[in-house]
């Protein structure tokens, strides 16, 4: 760091009594929807777990309304269809990321909500499943055309191709089409598989991904101190410029590192640790400095 510087919206308002139970998995008290307190304030993680119920979409919208960036991490067997579709719509409208973590399951209405991510992530051993919408009458599951119509319209909103729509709704009631993650693109479903990282030097453990760095820093300022050059404060313009009180330069994301070039100086790249609005700059496994993320450009650099 430099010294002294650094809607076409589909409305599911058709309240079809026969559809709201589609993808139901039994009684519950609704999904748990909360912010991971360990996630950075400028790039929070929203955790959704448990069975979806009517009204969970409203809980999610209320929580996410004022957020500019977030990743939504799912662990759910499904539940209320309309809640899942509306959560997915809200995620796409806000351009949030979605993920399913290692060993976790996201099925039925949960899988549909996960599809709403502007970018979708899944661990190699995560399970993401889909089936046709259905209703239960006297304990018997019957596929519902009305429910499948809602699902098809939602998937079309997400610009998924016909091959994906057919694949995602092909499993009958009480069966599940588990998505083969490495072959998902063959069905027109884009996702990033979160591979288990290679061993790294102690100082680099727990560093952020390129997407996480960009989401946390683009459009914000960092103020802190570097071991060699001392104090700094600089704004990272989303267009790739870095601006300080009496200097400017360029910044970019290269893989999972952040690279900065000041004036005529050579470009330097760092791995980045993010912890609740705190930044640690790491080079070759060694911590070279720290900083605090300030929202926006408070000094008008």
Key terms for this structure?
single chain; 301 residues; alpha+beta; 2-enoyl-CoA Hydratase, Chain A, domain 1; Lipocalin; eight-stranded antiparallel barrel; six-stranded mixed sheet; 19 strands; disordered N terminus
Summarize this structure briefly.
The chain is of the alpha+beta class and 301 residues long.
Question: Can you describe what's shown?
Answer:
- The structure is a single chain.
- With 301 residues, the chain is of the alpha+beta class.
- The chain has two domains: 162 residues, 2-enoyl-CoA Hydratase, Chain A, domain 1 (Alpha-Beta Complex); 93 residues, Lipocalin (Beta Barrel).
- 19% of the residues lie in helices and 31% in strands.
- The protein has six helices and 19 strands.
- The chain has an eight-stranded antiparallel beta barrel. Strands 1-2-3-4-6-11 form a six-stranded mixed beta sheet, with helices on one face.
- β18 and β19 form a beta hairpin.
- α1 runs parallel beside α2.
- It starts with 31 loop residues before the first strand and ends in a 7-residue tail after the last strand.
- The N terminus is likely disordered.
